[in-house]
């Protein structure tokens, strides 16, 4: 029996603290893929946004939009026939943050800028959407110890988590694997990572749900 063919272009997504970058890094290593990360720490407006969202939301969003457009143009140049690719952000999700954080007049300007940009965004062969409860997200954010993330409001995380769930509930552009990460640790438990990679290999079209039992119990 032939082994399932791995997707050539995989995107790992999910709210802040869920572990998308950690998983993308490990998938790239295990699958011999090129890794493309969005380095949020480079955004000079992000610390200000967590302190004062209303004041810094537009600058933060515009920086991310322009950076994501540049990245998508680079991805469009990659020959996926000869190079497997793992990324930790989906361009189609950019509007999620805009509609969550911007005032109406800022949102109107954001839409004008977005529409003026030509974005040759390649469609992933598979999107992995990582989910976790609010308490788990808060714990993981605290564990990684980034000083500016101490300002993140739990209410904002709750709204963001709900927005991600709504977005991916309606997402149909590519196959989707929804993974509940609350009871697994693919960073420190190799068996959890092995099981998840097996689910990735077996993922088919449409939306599929992977709810692991967790190897640490």
Notes on the structure:
- The chain is α/β, with parallel strands linked by helices.
- It has helices at 20-31, 46-51, 53-75, 94-101, 104-116, 134-144, 154-169, 190-202; strands spanning 9-13, 34-36, 85-87, 126-131, 176-180, 207-210.
- A six-stranded parallel beta sheet has the order 2-3-1-4-5-6, sandwiched between helices.
- Helix 8 links the parallel strand 5 (176-180) and strand 6.
- Helix 3 runs antiparallel to helix 4 and helix 3 (53-75) packs parallel to helix 5.
- The model has no long low-confidence stretch (mean pLDDT 90).
Please compute the radius of gyration using only Cα atoms. Answer: 17 Å
Strand content bin: 5-15%
Outline: globular
Q: How do the strands line up in the largest sheet?
A: 2-3-1-4-5-6
Major β-sheet, in short? 6 strands, parallel
Head-to-tail CA distance between termini: 33 Å
Order of helices and strands: EHEHHEHHEHHEHE
Helix content: 40-55%
Tally of DSSP helical segments: 8
Mean pLDDT: 90
DSSP E strands, number:
6
Assign the structural class, choosing from mainly alpha, mainly beta, alpha/beta, alpha+beta, or little secondary structure. Answer: alpha/beta
Task: List the uncertain runs.
Answer: none
Gist of the model:
The chain is α/β, with parallel strands linked by helices.
């Amino acid at each position: 029996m032939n082994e399932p063919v791995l997707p050539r272009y995989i995107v790992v997504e999910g709210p802040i603290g869920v572990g998308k970058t950690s998983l993308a890094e490990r998938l790239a290593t295990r699958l011999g893929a090129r890794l493309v990360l969005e380095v949020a720490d480079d955004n000079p407006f992000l610390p200000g946004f967590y302190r004062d969202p209303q004041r810094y939301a537009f600058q933060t969003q515009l920086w991310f939009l322009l950076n994501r457009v540049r990245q998508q143009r680079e991805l469009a140049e990659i020959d996926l026939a000869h190079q497997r690719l793992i990324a930790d952000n989906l361009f189609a999700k950019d509007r999620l943050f805009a509609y969550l954080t911007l005032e109406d007049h800022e949102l109107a300007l954001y839409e004008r800028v977005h529409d003026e940009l030509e974005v040759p965004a390649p469609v992933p062969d598979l999107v992995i959407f990582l989910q976790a409860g609010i308490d788990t997200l808060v714990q993981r954010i605290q564990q990684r110890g980034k000083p500016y993330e101490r300002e993140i409001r739990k209410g904002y995380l709750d709204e963001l988590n709900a927005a991600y769930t709504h977005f991916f509930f309606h997402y149909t552009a590519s196959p989707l694997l929804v993974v509940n990460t609350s009871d697994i640790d693919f960073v420190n438990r190799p068996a959890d990572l092995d099981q998840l990679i097996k689910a990735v290999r077996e993922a088919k079209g449409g939306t599929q749900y992977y709810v692991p039992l967790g190897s640490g119990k």
